[in-house]
Amino acid sequence: MFTFQVTKNDDASAARLGRLSTSHGVFDTPIFMPVGTQATVKAVTPEMLTEMGAGIILSNTYHLYLRPGADLVERAGGLHKFMNWPRGILTDSGGFQIFSLQGLRKISDEGVVFNSHIDGSRHFLSPQIVMEIEQKLGADIAMCFDECAPYPCSYEEADQAVTRTSLWAKRCRDSHNCSDQALFGIIQGNIFADLREKSAREITALDFPGYAIGGLSVGEPKEDMYRILDLTHQLLPTDKPRYLMGVGAPEDLVEGVARGVDMFDCVLPTRIARHGTAFTHRGKLVVRNAVYAADFRALDTDCDCRVCKNYSRAYIRHLVKAEEILAHTLITYHNLYFLIKMMQDIRQAIAEDRFNEFYTNFYASYKF
Amino acid sequence: MFTFQVTKNDDASAARLGRLSTSHGVFDTPIFMPVGTQATVKAVTPEMLTEMGAGIILSNTYHLYLRPGADLVERAGGLHKFMNWPRGILTDSGGFQIFSLQGLRKISDEGVVFNSHIDGSRHFLSPQIVMEIEQKLGADIAMCFDECAPYPCSYEEADQAVTRTSLWAKRCRDSHNCSDQALFGIIQGNIFADLREKSAREITALDFPGYAIGGLSVGEPKEDMYRILDLTHQLLPTDKPRYLMGVGAPEDLVEGVARGVDMFDCVLPTRIARHGTAFTHRGKLVVRNAVYAADFRALDTDCDCRVCKNYSRAYIRHLVKAEEILAHTLITYHNLYFLIKMMQDIRQAIAEDRFNEFYTNFYASYKF
User: Which of A250, A261, B49, B137 could bridge B54 with an S-S bond, Cβ 3.0-4.6 Å?
Assistant: First the structure.
């Protein structure tokens, strides 16, 4: 059974500590969730995720529906068993992916007709169908099927997406009937304050066990994102978890926490890893650069992860240049550890009434 | 310091048990050595190699000389430290790779001029230079620089390669001066019995601490390989380890052990893994095939490795189809474990005087 409890509120900001309970573990918030789009967090094993302290991971309904199919995952005993991940899983509804698809897709109030990015085959997804799929996948947290407007978009487009997201949220709620899976509503509204207010009002009226802030980190300036977050957390109930979708840059995690966000996910740490870039306490480090060819220091000299304890920049750069898979694995491991550890440090700071100090120190050392 | 001791001889075959001691551990033979060409065993971590019971791994002088360079590895503290592998390492001399290169290369008694496969740059390697490189890399076992004749080749070509391999072996021995690294000689001679005899006579006269059988598994029929092995092990001293280079098919390991071979290496288990093929006790299984789409059994139902305990064919096939890195990692792990475990079982069988029974059972269940 899913429960959430706020255990502490920061005095100087909207930051807070909380605790999520699921059938697959209890997780402290604020939390960063690694992304395992296709039922695997790219380049690392579940054992590595456990070792680095990952709690909940995210997987993707759109991708799993197309391949290998929700029925197969259900026959395997659900997503946890299929991918050998015993801890928490959240499934994104696929809305974001479908609305990002190039080419033909037709949206109506009933749902979306689209072509698969894998083989071009034609598909129809409605809120009800997505609920069926997410229940077959069996994650601990499922997301409502929503319409995510692009950035930039007109006020009218954003308004229509809010209206449809509310309509679909009701249909999702009415057709979702798995008591062991929490269904979260999603707030849309792009960068328009009044649309965010409208969306929050309509979605929270449906009384979900958690709320996501969608449609941010889609290309808008950071000031817009922070402004909308400043607004949105005040529109959401204090006793439910708040999940900022698709956000994972270190500075955005810090800013999100300061604005009352409890959960984050993003492909950033795993994606930049595969391009040879590592997070460090002093900013990003492009380890494939020639300057690191004979640098025998750790990726991040302030990090105590298994990778930083055992491998040098010179070795990892060699792996990157030689196109070895281990390069992906090592940098991905470090990047995920970096964010997970950062969230632990943030929780510790909030617990000790020094989140403000953490915030200042972060910007003093992290270079852009 | 390097030592080798034969601890038991099989009564019914040339199979034997032995023990290799190096500065990085003591290893029971017969042993299979995973290949880490570019200072990494493709798709797995050193921790995984330790967990699966790997003892010595092989790395490649030609590749490491070109990238990242022997000087860099030396500055890193040697190959063990560079790649975070605390157990045994053997470096191949690069002869095989250079003689396999397409395009321009010029061989003389002095050495080989060739073009890099990476950037086309021109290089010269001689026995003396290769010894310098291998000593900088700092493996526990180094191989002499040899000339490996292709298959098929004329008697004259094979004879010339034997003569040059002997000349170079003497130069290697004379210039090698690292007491903490054992230098092995290599027997050539292609599929010609009298050339194998000549090569064995000349190379063993140089009194190396170990001998490799090179120039096999290069395309010749299996009968030729087995015939040459039948002959060669009788030409080698019984108190020195015998290493059959580039051999790693399960049946060839069994046949090699029966012919007195103590050490093997091969890219086969890691290479076929990346193409979606797994070893099993019943033969190879092409897990990417559609027939495994909903097969929730382990890759090998008779295997107790971490992969077989936790993942299904259906899941691994999904990863292969979705082009996920984890597919490579899981199948590579299993394939290496399969060979390492097979060698453990072989050692156990020899120890218990039932290698003949092992041999019969292997062919009864392994399908080609």
Answer: B49
